[in-house]
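In response to the reviewer comment on reproducibility (Comment 2.3), we provide here a single inverse folding case reported in full, input and output, so that an independent group could reproduce the run without further information from us. The structure tokens appear first.
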């Protein structure tokens, strides 16, 4: 692939614009940049989860795959008309979701974010993934966005919720259940 970034600063963004993958320039606060920027933020938050030692191997594999997927999704959003995320990405998330969820107790109450450091970081990643989903949906109202992008982020946030539950147990923590009668 060679040296893709030989120089980190270019000064081309000093005017408040950024380059898209197709070479065009757009304002840094455009819906497109906000969408792929929030996808990047979700990817970074997953990296924070992976930095914890308490992450079991199967969860680590699933989250690492998701990071690669999110990089692909960011590229898709950065290059208008580009396709990267496929139904196979979504299917893999659903398979991981089903496997990780099958040993968890049934939910009877809402869960508050927490349960241990890795679980709390995963809840944060989940909320960022939900925001990314909203940003991509907003973009889809004015520009073409493939439905796979939105579906992927929806499933990812579901997976992150389940993984947060798994991590709470792996850390010998407990899920914090919402108590309306506190």
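Designed residues, in position order:
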């Amino acid at each position: 692939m060679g040296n893709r970034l030989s120089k980190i600063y270019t000064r081309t963004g000093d005017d408040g614009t950024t380059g898209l993958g197709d070479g065009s320039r757009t304002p840094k606060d455009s819906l497109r940049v906000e969408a792929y920027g929030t996808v990047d933020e979700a990817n970074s938050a997953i990296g924070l989860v992976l930095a914890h030692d308490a992450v079991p191997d199967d969860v680590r594999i699933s989250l690492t795959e998701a990071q690669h997927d999110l990089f692909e999704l960011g590229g898709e959003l950065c290059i208008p008309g580009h396709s990267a995320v496929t139904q196979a990405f979504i299917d893999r998330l659903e398979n991981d979701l089903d496997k990780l969820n099958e040993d968890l107790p049934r939910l009877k109450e809402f869960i508050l974010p927490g349960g241990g450091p890795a679980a709390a970081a995963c809840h944060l990643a989940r909320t960022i993934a939900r925001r990314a989903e909203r940003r991509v949906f907003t973009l889809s109202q004015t520009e073409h966005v493939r439905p796979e992008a939105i579906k992927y982020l929806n499933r990812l946030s579901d997976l992150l919720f389940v993984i947060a539950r798994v991590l709470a147990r792996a850390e010998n923590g407990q899920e914090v259940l919402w108590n309306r009668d506190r």
